[in-house]
């Protein structure tokens, strides 16, 4: 009888605990004053469902629409999203002491065989890693990488010539994905995956996507650094398929990197120096303060991270540039005129366009930035944790230990920052009368602050280089001129449907036959 009484007392104690907890979360917690669906006070089920339905970023944007005038909305029991320029500076800016917002446990899910520059939560380790690899992404390093970009672009253009000879409609986004996969293979693993020549994707590209979906799901669990392990034990078929993909993805990266080391002795240039790609720079990287170098697990983690950051984001950006330029022929004509004035000797449109001149193509770069504003590759909030003493963000008090962030897709269309935010207008970035400072603060296509994408230069240059080559060489049009393209969110925001374009040699240049034979 005593044991039964003890069990009943224990049950009552547990029930009482959760009743008190729910009461606090629903009505007493400082977070309860922040608007949001009531269920977000006690559960992350709405966000999890949005992630599963491939619309997580849009879900966050819709929440702000439900509560007009609010600078913050509740997205979960311990998470808040903001939509204001001051929130960007407060959360992602360079904080000091108690004002520092560290990375949340969400990033632990993206640590694979070791911490990468992206996944490490330690401010000290991040600073050390950044010191080690910063030169790998400098403009000077880009010139060493340029031959690999030129070779990959040449293969890509030959494939495009095949479509241009017949004016056959085809899915150009598919080929953008092959291009970026091959280029990042060259830069991260020392050799192309050969997807452009084969005309079909590598298994690796699908594994990258599935593995990232697993990381996103695990990052939403409340078990901190144990999230990955806990989720891997969940017996649901969907979860297990993602877990198997993650394991295969890591094994693929291991084998590719090992081959890179084995082939390294054969990859010696005529000058007697090793092949100069990003991975070689990582291998040689040494912290100037401590002398530390990356071990193999770290290099493997960085290579895996590079494939996600470079391949997935670059291809989707070029997709949106192609789509919007096809929809806006006047902008396209201005860019082509600028290209022809800058490269008058490139009569057959086959000579490589050098990195050294790309920074002068201001309208083409504005086109890229505008596409990233409207369709940032990662549209949801990159979470940071409020300091232990709590923080006041945009006059909203948030207790310590809460995940906060600014969704890039939401603030990128903030009407108080961008005039006609849902309209594609690249010249807004060239308007000297506009509040460019605030616009740039709210542009999160590459992140913000000390942890913004370190590979921004690399991504920007190869996107500009390929798009300039395409525009000089071909007339590009949509097969369906009435197409309205939306987004579907995997980890990266991608087009919500397949669509075709038609290429034709640019006869106004007077070289259609020569361009096709080149």
UniProtKB/TrEMBL annotation:
Cofactor(s) required, per the database record: heme
Family matches, as PANTHER family: CYTOCHROME P450 (PTHR24305), CYTOCHROME P450 MONOOXYGENASE APDB-RELATED (PTHR24305:SF235)
Record-level Gene Ontology MF annotations: heme binding; iron ion binding; monooxygenase activity; oxidoreductase activity, acting on paired donors, with incorporation or reduction of molecular oxygen
Positions that bind heme: 453
Assigned protein family: Belongs to the cytochrome P450 family.
Protein keywords: Heme, Iron, Membrane, Metal-binding, Monooxygenase, Oxidoreductase, Transmembrane, Transmembrane helix
GO BP, one annotated term: secondary metabolite biosynthetic process
Cited Pfam families: p450 (PF00067)
Protein name listed in UniProt: Cytochrome P450 monooxygenase
Residue intervals passing through the bilayer: 7-27
Organism from which the protein derives: Exophiala bonariae
């Amino acid at each position: 009888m005593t044991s039964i009484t003890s069990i009943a007392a224990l049950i009552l104690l547990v029930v009482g605990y959760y009743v008190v907890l729910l009461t606090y979360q629903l009505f007493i917690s400082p977070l309860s004053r922040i608007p949001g669906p009531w269920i977000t006070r006690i559960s992350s089920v709405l966000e999890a469902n949005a992630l599963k339905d491939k619309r997580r970023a849009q879900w966050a944007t819709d929440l702000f629409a439900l509560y007009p005038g609010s600078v913050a909305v509740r997205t979960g029991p311990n998470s808040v999203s903001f939509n204001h320029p001051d929130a960007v500076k407060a959360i992602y800016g360079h904080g000091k002491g108690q004002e520092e917002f560290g990375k949340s446990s969400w990033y632990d899910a993206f640590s694979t065989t070791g911490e990468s520059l992206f996944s490490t939560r330690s401010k000290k380790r991040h600073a050390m890693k950044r010191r080690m690899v910063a030169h790998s992404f400098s403009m000077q390093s880009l010139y060493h990488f340029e031959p690999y970009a030129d070779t990959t672009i040449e293969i890509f253009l030959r494939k495009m010539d095949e479509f241009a000879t017949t004016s056959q409609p085809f899915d150009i986004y598919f080929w953008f994905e092959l291009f970026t996969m091959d280029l990042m293979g060259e830069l991260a693993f020392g050799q192309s995956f050969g997807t452009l020549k084969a005309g079909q994707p590598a298994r690796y590209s699908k594994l990258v996507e599935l593995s990232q979906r697993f990381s996103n799901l695990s990052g939403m669990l409340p078990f901190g650094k144990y999230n990955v392990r806990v989720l891997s034990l969940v017996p649901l078929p969907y979860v297990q398929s993602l877990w198997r993909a993650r394991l295969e993805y890591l094994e693929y990266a291991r084998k590719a990197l090992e081959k890179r080391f084995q082939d390294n002795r054969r990859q010696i240039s005529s000058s007697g120096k090793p092949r100069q790609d990003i991975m070689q720079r990582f291998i040689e990287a040494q912290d100037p303060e401590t002398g530390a170098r990356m071990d193999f697990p770290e290099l493997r983690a960085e290579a895996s991270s590079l494939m996600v950051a470079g391949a997935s984001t670059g291809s989707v950006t070029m997709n949106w540039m192609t789509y919007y330029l096809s929809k806006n022929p006047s902008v396209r004509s201005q860019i082509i005129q600028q290209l022809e004035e800058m490269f008058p000797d490139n009569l057959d449109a086959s000579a490589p366009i050098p990195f050294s001149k790309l920074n002068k193509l201001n309208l083409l770069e504005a086109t890229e930035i505008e596409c990233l504003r409207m369709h940032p590759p990662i549209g949801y909030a990159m979470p940071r944790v409020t300091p232990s003493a709590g923080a006041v963000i945009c006059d909203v008090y948030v207790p310590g230990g809460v995940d906060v962030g600014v969704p890039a897709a939401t603030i990128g269309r903030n009407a108080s920052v961008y005039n006609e935010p849902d309209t594609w207008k690249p010249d807004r970035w060239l308007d000297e009368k506009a509040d460019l400072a605030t616009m740039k603060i709210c542009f999160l296509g590459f992140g913000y602050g000390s942890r913004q994408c370190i590979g921004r230069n690399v991504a920007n240059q190869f996107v500009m280089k390929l798009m300039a080559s395409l525009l000089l060489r071909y007339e590009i049009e949509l097969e369906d001129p009435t197409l309205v393209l939306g987004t579907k969110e995997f980890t990266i925001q991608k087009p919500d449907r397949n669509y075709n374009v038609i290429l034709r040699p640019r006869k106004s240049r007077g070289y259609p036959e020569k361009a096709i034979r080149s």
